[in-house]
């Protein structure tokens, strides 16, 4: 029963995009690479639109510019780690120079 409970772990946090270009293609590619390291299902959402964080096409649909609040949500055994890793990427401005 414990393993089943762990597989259903869900975690979410909100972050603000603080890089000048927002969630552009290069940044979206980095999100996909980080999210794909985890077995959990991972989503990013903006307002009423939620997309798979492992899909670059989905991420481009968010059209998230500088200052946009993004919710990162994950469900699975490593949900918290996935959200924290993506949060660190977002807070690092996608490791890009301003």
Describe what this molecule looks like in 3D.
The structure is a single chain. The protein has helices at residues 2-7, 25-35, 56-61, 79-91; strands spanning 10-16, 41-46, 49-52, 69-75. The chain has a 4-stranded antiparallel sheet. The chain is globular and about 35 Å long. The mean pLDDT is 93. The chain is α+β, with helices and mostly antiparallel strands and 98 residues long. Helix 2 runs antiparallel to helix 4. The chain has 4 helices and 4 strands, in the order αβαββαβα.
Topology:
Elements: H1 2-7, E1 10-16, H2 25-35, E2 41-46, E3 49-52, H3 56-61, E4 69-75, H4 79-91
Antiparallel strand pairs: 1-4, 2-3, 2-4
Helix pairs in contact: 2-4
List keywords for this structure.
98 residues, alpha+beta, Histidine-containing Protein, Chain: A, four-stranded antiparallel β-sheet, 4 helices, 4 strands
């Amino acid at each position: 029963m414990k393993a089943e409970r762990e597989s259903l772990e869900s975690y979410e946090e909100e972050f603000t995009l603080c890089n000048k270009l927002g969630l552009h293609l290069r940044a979206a590619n980095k999100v996909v690479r980080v999210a794909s390291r985890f077995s959990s299902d991972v989503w990013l959402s903006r307002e009423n639109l939620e997309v798979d964080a492992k899909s670059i096409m989905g991420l481009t649909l968010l059209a998230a510019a500088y200052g946009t609040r993004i919710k990162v949500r994950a469900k699975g055994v490593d949900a918290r780690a996935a959200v924290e890793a993506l949060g660190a990427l977002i807070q690092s401005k996608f490791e890009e120079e301003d």
